[in-house]
Specification:
This protein is α/β, with parallel strands linked by helices. The protein is built from 15 helices and seven strands. The longest helix is centred in the C-terminal third of the chain and has 25 residues.
């Protein structure tokens, strides 16, 4: 099951991976591209692997966290070893904590394995980036793709209007209407990690490009189902904005089915892309035509049993 904010953070990262790495590492890097590293025989958990193309190439494995997971360092270590084995490049592991709820005693940047007598026999080092400790000005001056992190940065509540205004100015100058809609929608979703619905609604009131966004409209539809909305944003946005006002109760059953089908489609696309590569136009059309939840779940179960998209979709 994907983590609630995977779709939002991955969309942002894929739109400009270089800007994300430069923000997280605090320095300039070479060209960056997303790697399709097949770890499906080990795990189906979401992960992001980036190749930095410099004189001596290196790899970054990045994990987004919105809740505390004491096993995260061990998972980072596992991925680091697997990716290094597959690619034979140095691997930098980064845990990006999106909110204080993701912080905890295990987030030290160092994982040690000890013998029963206490002797350390292995160490694994990783980077921990706490979003709420980063200056908002630093994010506001970065790439457009990282702007939605600005309200989660080191900023007081009474400073939020100025942060949102600075975002508006940059997006008005530099972004297309479609880009702006995507980035405002991401801001709307990510702010739910930290702030109340009422505050978010007030700060983002009047952002027309967000309301025109397809993703935002999906969020509203899902918001009609109280349980689905709670799962989507970890209990912080139960039927927000128009979703709540437009009749959460009357859309409950429909929202639940639609939400489960969309979730199943996301899982199928992610697993299939890892296994077979990015789907071409005719495969995309075939996937878009599938709306049945049971069919989507059956296809996901079969991903590891076949070798191509065509073979997968040819199954009755």
């Amino acid at each position: 099951m994907p983590k609630p904010f995977d779709a939002t953070t991955k969309e942002l990262l894929e739109s400009d991976p270089r800007a994300w790495l430069e923000l997280l590492l605090g320095r300039k890097v070479g060209e960056v591209r997303i790697l399709n590293v097949d770890l499906s025989t080990i795990t189906t958990e979401a992960d992001t692997v980036l190749l930095v193309q410099e004189i001596e190439p290196w790899v970054v494995h990045l994990e987004f966290q919105s809740s505390y997971d004491p096993d995260l360092p061990l998972r980072l270590q596992r991925y680091s070893i697997l990716v290094h084995y597959r690619r034979r490049f140095p691997v930098v592991s980064i845990a990006l904590l999106l909110c204080p709820d993701a912080n905890g005693p295990a987030m030290t940047g160092l994982l040690q394995h000890r013998w029963p007598d206490g002797l350390v026999y292995h160490e694994f080092r990783y980077n921990v980036v706490r979003t709420w400790e980063r200056p908002a000005d630093e994010i506001l001056a970065g790439g457009l793709a990282t702007l939605p992190l600005a309200p989660l940065a080191k900023v007081k509540e009474n400073e939020l209007p100025a942060v949102i205004q600075a975002m508006r100015q940059r997006l008005d100058r530099e972004a297309t209407r479609g880009q702006a809609g995507m980035l405002w929608t991401a801001t709307y979703v990510l702010m739910g990690l930290t702030y109340s619905d009422e505050l978010i609604d007030r700060l983002l009131e009047g952002v027309q490009s967000m309301k025109e966004s397809v993703t935002y409209q999906k969020i509203l539809r899902e918001g009609r189902d109280e349980g689905l909305a709670k799962g989507l944003v970890e209990g912080r946005a139960e039927g927000r904005v128009e979703g709540r006002a437009e009749g959460r109760d009357e859309g409950r059953a429909e929202g639940r089915v639609e939400g489960r089908a969309e979730e199943a489609m996301r899982i199928l696309r992610r697993l299939g892309t890892r296994r077979f590569g990015k789907p071409d136009t005719h495969i995309e059309a075939a996937l878009d035509a599938i709306a049945d939840l049971e069919r989507l779940e059956q296809l996901s179960d079969r991903v590891l049993e076949v070798k191509t998209w065509d073979e997968l979709l040819a199954q009755p």
